[in-house]
Amino acid sequence: MSYSQDLSQLHNPKLEDLIRIAYNNLPSDKRTHPWIGLSHGVKLLGNDNELMQYLCAYGKMHKEKIVSALEAIREPRSYFSKKATIIDWGCGQGLASICFLDYVRELGIIPNIEKVILVEPSVPAINRASEHLCKYIGDNQILLVNKYINDVINDDIATNSNLVIHFFSNILDIPSVDIDHIANIVKESIHTEQLFFCVGPQNIGASRISDFAKLFEIEEDGLLKKFAGNLQGRGTVNLLVFRVESETTEVVKVEFRHARHLRVNTHTSIQRVLTNAKVDGDCYDKAFQFYRSIIEFERIKSVSAGDAYAYTIHIDVSGESSKLNIDIQENANFESLFKRNLDSKLVKWPQNLNIGIGVIVDGRLHQILQYIYLHEDIKNIDIVREYISVCLSSFTLNADVASDLQIGDDQVDAIESIISDPTTTWESLENLLKDAINNDVVLDQYVYLSLSSTNPALSQINAELKQLAPKKDGTLLTPFLCGHIEKNHINKPIDEETLLRVVQADKSQLKAIAYALNNKISVITGPPGSGKTQMILNLIANAYMQGKSVLVASKNNEAVNNIKDRYDLVDESNYLLRFGSRNAITTQLLPYLERLQANTPQLEVDTNRYSELYKQYSASCDSIKQNKKKLLELAMLEDEIQLLLCEIQAKELELIGIQSENNEIQKNLRIKHDKVLNLSRCGYNWGQELNNVKGKINILQNKYSGLGKLLFNWFSKKRYAASCLNTLLQMPDEYTLMIERQSRISCVNDVKNGQDLIYLYSIQKAVIENIIACSTDFANQELAYKVKFNACESEIIRLKKRQVECKERIDLLLSQYEDIQEAIKIEQKYIEDNSVELFTMSVLQRLCQKNSDTIISRYKNYLPDNIPWKMEEQQTYLNDAKLFLNLFRLNAVTNLSIKNCYPLQDGFFDIVIIDEASQCDVASALPLIYRAKQLVVIGDPLQLKHISAVNADEEMTIKNYLSFDENPLVRYADYSLWDYCRDLITTSKENHKPIVLDCHYRCHPQIIGYSNQMFYEKRLGVTLDVRTTEKNPMLKQKGIIWMDVRGEQRSDAQNINDAEVEKCISIAIDLAKQYPEISIGIISPFKHQAQEINAQIPANLSDRIVADTVHKFQGGERDVIIYSLVVTNNSPATKIRWIDRSVPNLVNVAVTRARTALYIVGNKEYIRAYSNIDLPLGNLVKYTETKGSAPSVDSGNTFIIDTNIFVQYPDIIDAINPRDNIIIPAKVVDELDKLKVSLSNESLRDNVEKALRNINRELNKRKIREECGDLSYLPQDFSRKNADNLILSIALKFRNHNPILLTNDNGLQIKAKGLGVDTMTLCELVGY
């Protein structure tokens, strides 16, 4: 199929869907590097391949930039409901308009779009843009302006809409675009309210967006005022949103790309990291070099410094940049430490030199800037004669101090960019920091030196990355780092109905397990409280039963411990090994292995019972597969019956068409051969006559030549003429008359000479040839007609025969239907009832294998830190490890402890499961992925990501050095392992979407209701099915309780709200005293507040009440959570912006920590004023005031109503219980709309009219929604064109919401039941 054909099949597409089908349709040689040949995205796209390449290479980047700009609109719901015209300048494929429509759709907003004007010079691109937007709005709303921007005239963009939205996406930075011309025609043509969204690339030095702004009277000072922190430095504007109305211009949002002066040759840490980096190689090599370099650089930056010693500042301004000169000998105490650190005889692992510049905030010293001198760079310095020198522009922001002072990301970026400017001086530094933090900041007049050690965890990862083997085909790491996985699916798929359930499992968990076992790389979205641990336990049990070895890993110790603890409740042998720190291995793992080693001779397993269980389990699996095959066959046959009916009707129409075509051809032939038609059918042998005539002509031509002409005329003419005319008289009369008319010869006397005779015969020849041509044409047509007719008739016979066969087979399967269903239930019940016994007996049997004690004895000698490093010992270690893994197939580790557990061998584990992958960076996971044959990553993209000390410019510097700046997958600081894998699987042709665990078991329905509507429905398109059971029934107040506190923040830099502290402590103490059994947590976005609260918790309640930041609390949960927001009337605006915009997922994490009650302590009016309902805090205020949108524990059924129900009973909506949900498929509304015209029965036509009125009336009154079909939910073999299947897909989409398909259609009922969807007829619902 082509891109356009795939596009036509999409319903409610998103940009991600367009990127996916573009990728699937790209030639294979273009997929891995789609940006090649596009001139960094500025080329005028001229063909289908280039359009698809652009989508794959730059589509996601476009969305990030456009969404960032759109988020500046404070009240999008009211703003975008105005009648609006969109003008997409240089639209390309319409990506900016698509991103806008996706964005408002995700917010649940229906924009009032009058028209979209697409301006684009490329014909293929503008046509593709029109194709795309027709999937969102009507084609009559799209206006194409196929011109270069400089050729656009006033009439092209004229509009009377109340609002005009301009998109300039990567257009204004193109030098050939005349921005003066754009400004002039906009001002002349449009006189209503306008919004301008201008986004540009990350280029430095260009200033065209700010130049464009000046044309609308926006000066540079106006842009700077909008920039967070009001900093004095500046760079390139790469995002600008401004509003124009009544000649008034307002800047809504501006972002600067600061002109960094970060160069490899001046940044010694990066220089050191990149010294040995290889800059050549393929995509794999460069990606690997990037992650190695980034981890090495992160290791250097993430230091643990010792005691700091003050030094006087000596500033040298003689060069291009201010330089600090430090005399180590000024401080005798530190000089002694410094010298000792340089002595290799005294220090085995020398430390680096950390230089800090401090600021005093609220009387406290914070070393806000730091520079790290690597030991290698200072070991040869003679401190007696030389200074330690460092340029001021080489300092970077200390990430921990920035976090402690709650400096926002935008401020961090600005501070670092301006510090890195060589022109920054010590005198200007204090003003800079005052602007960035607050005016009370004082720059300390000393620098502080300390010795620092690198992060041991990062050192461990770095050590493993250094040992990784080069690119090797066949390993999972190769396609992973190349960013392309051609085939994700694994042969021999596992059916979810046959899975063991060692703990309870819902449908989405079983689906996720089967998905994980069936794919090379699986991505699972596990929202909070969705039963991830249950799913993982069932996954490792089933993987084990499939003969696979499993490693479960996470960066989070608590997550691994939780899995281990839950596993041990299932299997008393504690078979899942929990590796960890040296201390954990010594105190927990080794004692367990020693006990097991001692007891293995006494271990026994009932082999007969195990054999019986396993045999029955295998039989149950086979039975389920066979019976499911029958149900699937039934559904497919019903589908085939529909297709056969359509094909038969089509063939019958084709048969009529063949007959009509034949009649038309016959008619045309009769017209064509009208003069000789009768002669061709008279039965005369015209072929023989033609030969006779040709013979006569030859004879005459021979005789009638030269002198023979005279002799022929004198002696032979009359004889030949008489013979010819006599022959003519014996021919059919019509023929004779035709010849006489054409030749004008009717008697012998009319023949004057031999030439007349030749002429007479020539006329006969021509007429006979026409007669023969007529016969031939009719004969050929008759033959062609019979071939077509017979073939079509034979196909109809074959189709009808197949139709009969299908009906007979359907009847047979229907007669067995109840037995099949019952058989499946019986086998599933057997598997469920015996899962734990079967699994634990299988584990016990493995532990009883011969020599297990010897295997344990050999391997535990390597633990905890005796793993060999000599090459000659490696093979023995590897062999022992393989034997040990064959004995202990289930293992759990933190990401960092794997190095001390098992060898770095490619494909060592069959499956590696990485939990909390959204908190894990890609680089630290590479050693785990290298060890995997299959990879399962589980995480929640709406939780908090990992924290990195590496900033975006340092990351880009490393990329640029490696000439590796265009592959969108290779990122680090802002890109989690979950993000990477989610995007990676889209490159596969099948199984290219994450699976979502969509049931929720933790929070009170009212609590999770907020996260559902604000995060999961909007951003993931998933509504969590709330199945929370009653917890803590004694608690009087449950759900979300807002405690309105209007305190004050102590200072801009000290994020403490004393009134909130007091209220939090009061609530916690009261609850702790009243309910001794409940657990209580107090959390805040800000470290200062958490520390202050922690300090005031009474000592006698410190084991009951825990206080910490939201970041630290991620992964934890409590019966009651008290959430202190801190932000209030005197808080800097950057604080609430930081929560709402920089880390919006922070609120989701905070809310979902609470099981039963969530107390929010904060200033409600302040949040209402400075946030809005489309942002997390503003929405939280609105939600807590209404609470009506929170789902109940018993959410009722969800009815999906088929067309035939409305036709027969138009009042069906009134017959459904008001507590139940109703979904009306868009296809049903479409069919009803057609039936109101096409139905011949007047009574039924009236029913249809009434049904449509009822639907329209009830849509806004009840829990009714209209849904489009989603073909991705259908089995692969189901027809995508069948209307019933579109309706069925909606039932499958909502299968976790108790769907009931209300239909009288037997075929649809059969398919639904075969796929596990309940059905009901009209009679069953209303009783008649």
Describe the structure.
With 1328 residues, this protein is of the alpha/beta class. 49% of the residues lie in helices and 15% in strands. The relative contact order is 0.07.
Average predicted local confidence, pLDDT:
87
Sum up the overall morphology in one term.
Answer: globular
- Helical content band: 40-55%
Number of strands: 35
> Which sheet architecture does the biggest sheet show?
7 strands, mixed
Number of helical segments with 4 or more residues: 50
Q: Characterize the quaternary organization of these chains.
A: single chain
Walk across the major sheet and give the strand order: 3-2-1-4-5-6-7
The residue ranges in which pLDDT falls below 50 over 5 or more consecutive positions are 226-234, 258-266, 1188-1195
Residue fraction in strands: 5-15%
List the defining traits of the structure above.
1328 residues, alpha/beta, seven-stranded mixed β-sheet, 50 helices, 35 strands
Summarize the structure.
With 1328 residues, this protein is α/β, with parallel strands linked by helices. The protein has a seven-stranded mixed β-sheet, with helices on both faces. The protein has a seven-stranded parallel β-sheet with strand order 19-20-18-21-22-17-23, sandwiched between helices. Strands 8, 9, 12, 13, 15 and 16 form a six-stranded antiparallel β-sheet that branches.
